[in-house]
Design goal:
By secondary structure, the protein is mostly beta strands. It has 2 domains: 90 residues, RimM (Elongation Factor Tu (Ef-tu), domain 3), CATH 2.40.30.60; 63 residues, PRC-barrel domain (SH3 type barrels). It contains 1 helix and 12 strands; from the N terminus they run βββββαβββββββ. Strands 1-2-5-4-3-6 form a 6-stranded antiparallel β-barrel. A hairpin with a 4-residue loop joins strand 11 and strand 12. It is elongated and about 55 Å long. The termini are far apart.
């Protein structure tokens, strides 16, 4: 029985010319088709994953629609793809190189983003104090949470557009209005 047909590979002329090998599919997570991807160590920054990713299967580039990014940090991510829905299908893509179109995007659309591009950014509060570096962006019960690392401790900061002061992609900083006492928890 064939679980998936990977003969969908398309010629080099039909896929984006800015595809970059960003990592590899590491393993299946759970029973609903989630997969763990491990990023290349030489990436300048973690890409903002959305849209289509490409896997190298039988020397062909095969597109997969990205369904959801469950969690992401500077080393790996847990994702779901539209066509991968069970562990058997996950096994078929495990170990495959992962490609993604990388381009410079100077504008940030908050309504459309999954905010994974913030991994590695410095968090600055309303007093221009650097609180640490964002090591992970996760979604928990519909709330976006930023994991912040600094020399003293790691802590979580909830993220919402209402507390956003600004994002500087050139300096890789994000400024938020941080509630008083949050750092003391």
């Amino acid at each position: 029985m064939v679980i998936m047909n990977f003969s969908l590979g398309i010629s080099n002329a039909n896929f984006p010319n800015n595809l970059v090998n960003i990592g590899r599919v590491s393993k299946a997570i759970g029973y609903s088709g989630q997969i763990k991807i491990v990023f290349q160590k030489n990436l300048d920054s973690i890409p903002n994953l959305k849209g289509t990713i490409w896997l190298s299967i039988d020397k062909k580039m095969v597109p997969f629609s990205l369904k959801e990014v469950h969690s992401i940090n500077k080393e790996s991510a847990i994702i779901s793809l539209d066509d991968i829905i069970n562990p058997d299908q996950c096994k078929l893509v495990t170990g495959r190189d992962l490609f993604y179109p990388l381009k410079v995007n100077k504008r940030t659309k908050l309504a459309d983003d999954n905010f994974s591009f913030l991994v590695g950014y410095k968090l600055i509060d309303q007093n221009d104090t650097t609180l640490g570096k964002i090591s992970e962006v996760a979604l928990s019960y519909g709330q976006i949470l930023l994991t912040i690392e600094n020399q003293q401790k790691n802590f979580l900061v909830p993220f919402h557009e209402n507390i956003l002061i600004g994002i500087d992609q050139d300096k890789q900083t994000i400024s938020l209005e941080i509630a008083e006492g949050l750092m003391d928890l």
